[in-house]
Amino acid sequence: xxxRKDPVTQNWVIQEDGEFSWAExxxxxxxxxxxxxxxxxxxxxxxxxxxxxxxxxxxxVYRIEGEAERRGEGLYDKMRNVGAHEVVxxxxxxxxxxxxxxxxxxxxxxRACVARxxxxxxxxxxxxxxxxxxxxxxxxxxxxxPHTQITALPFxxxxxxxxxxxxxxxxxxxxxxxxxxxxxxxxxxxLRTVDWNxxxxxxxxxxxxxxYETWIIPLAHSATFEESVTAWETQLHLGxxxxxxxxxxxxxxxxxxxxLHTSPNLNAKFERAGHWRSIRxxxxxxxxxxxxxxQRAKSYSIREVLYNSVRPETAAERxxxxxx
Length: 324
Known about the structure:
The protein is of the alpha+beta class.
């Protein structure tokens, strides 16, 4: 496997020969099967055994060893698939999804993510550390056991680059955080809000990319997720809020992507000095929840212009009054 960069879209794409399918057999993430995935990177345990465990992915897309070895092939760029690919095993129970776990347990999952992100960002080869979970077959869930994935990359994903640039431009114009202003406007209008309290707001974005897309944003400004949720009390509060929003989303579909967008690794050795001078002021971490449905409107599949068949105002109202 290797990364190749599209010179037109600027996307880095993993290239691999053939698809992998899991063989029938025991779940490598269940208790009692630790020998199938023996290396433990993080563990929270009680007297009965582990409750949250982080391991390397059983079949990682990225490899921790070596350097990126960026090189050219004419005008094309490519590099080794160096990085990290980890699995946060959210619960010993094979069938208990994140939204159905206790608030305290979801907080322990968040704590595990914070610990691993903090550790991975010490590696100056990695420019970005991503946290995401794919729930359901339509979302590409590759292991049945409830889990979150963490990846460390030698580049910043294009979607995050776009957000960073927009945030930087807005800050240079107004000297305010774009995301803070969005959150305050959504709170004031309450047209697209799903839920909110004194710390977090969940809303369907004004230009939602698909039905029931939902963002979760902290009301207190912070660019970096793992720096702002270090306290157990904050993790507990966020865990309760996040699980509640996921339960609302699951009233319309069991399949979704949950993605954390946070600041890049500012310690990366190949980051240009001063490139993100205002990032702690202009960027704002957030979760994006992208539901997946078995059928889409025909024009939605034409990616040049995204098509959303449910207006965000309608989606937010349905989610706000959903009974999970």
